[in-house]
Amino acid sequence: MIPRLLLFLSLIGVTVSIIVGGGGGGGYNDHSGHYSHSDSSDSSDSHEHRPRPHRPRPPRPQPGRPPRERTNCPANWLLFKRPQGNWCVGTFVHPTMLGVGVAEEQCKSHGARLTGFQSSEERMRIAEAGRQLVIQNNLVKPSVWVGARNKPECGSRSACPDSRNSFYWTDGHTQNGTDGFGWQAGNPMLEYGYKDVHRVYGISGCVVLSIGRNGVTAYEVWKGFLHGLLDDTWCHATTRLYACGKKAT
Fold first, then answer.
1. Which residues are in the C-type lectin domain (predicted)?
2. Domain locations along the chain
3. pLDDT tens digits along 130-183
């Protein structure tokens, strides 16, 4: 009985010594390549991760937005949509007869110029606006000053036999061409006129838009003249109507 007890106690002692000594496997010594917890901690500190300073991300380029279409015109002005920018036209009646120079000054007071017509549609819409003013004011032989002049090289009909290209628009916006130039039959004449032997009218280098009260015939005194077509006239001539144009806002 006693020998068995001694054997049991000796086995317990061996087991305790193994646990206290590090778990077997032949033990260890300080130079066997085993790294303690403190060693590994020092190694980790030597390679410590340092955060980089924050740099703001550059803004992403925004997709280009098309410019806002300008469609605002003053009250009672017409809006015309044009490829080069929308255009406003107002038609006015003056209390007295006025020449083309005074008509241009009246347009400048509106921040505008005597207008041109880029298309036949524009010309006819202004002709209708003029016709309404003719009816309201009971005008006789009415016409509307517009912004067109003969080209400098077109001092006579023989100098510019192609009458479709003998005038240009003066408002600085209307595209020059033939679409807006709709002339009365036989015009422009580019006629050189005299009032008398002492006074010269010069070339008929300015332009009016003919208006007919009935929307068909322009003037009773000039047979064949039609509503909504252009007529070249002397720049000293006078009428009461004028049409101004400026860019839409």
1. 73-245
2. 78-247
3. 999 999 999 988 999 999 999 999 988 889 988 778 999 999 999 988 889 999
Mean pLDDT of 77-98: 97
Q: Which two tokens stand for residue 87?
A: 């255009």
Q: Please check whether residue 208 is in contact with residue 144, taking contact to mean a CB–CB distance below 8 angstroms.
A: yes
Give the 3-state secondary structure of residue 247. Answer: strand
Residues 187 and 179: their CA atoms lie apart, in Å, by 15
- Contacts by 129-133 with C-beta closer than 8 Å and gap 24+? 129/78, 129/91, 129/243, 130/91, 130/209, 130/211, 130/241, 130/243, 131/211, 131/212, 131/213, 131/215, 131/227, 133/91, 133/92, 133/93, 133/241
Q: What are the DSSP calls for 126-166, one per residue? A: HHHHHHHHHHHHT-SS-EEEEEEEE-TT-SSTTT---GGGS
Residue 160 makes CB contacts below 8 A (sequence gap 6+) with: 151, 153, 154, 166, 190
Tokens coding 30: 């300080």
CATH superfamily of 78-247: Mannose-Binding Protein A, subunit A (3.10.100.10)
Looking at residues 34-41, what average pLDDT do you find?
Answer: 44
Closest CA to 123 of 93, 143, 109: 143
CA gyration radius for the chain? 48
pTM for this model (two decimals) = 0.71
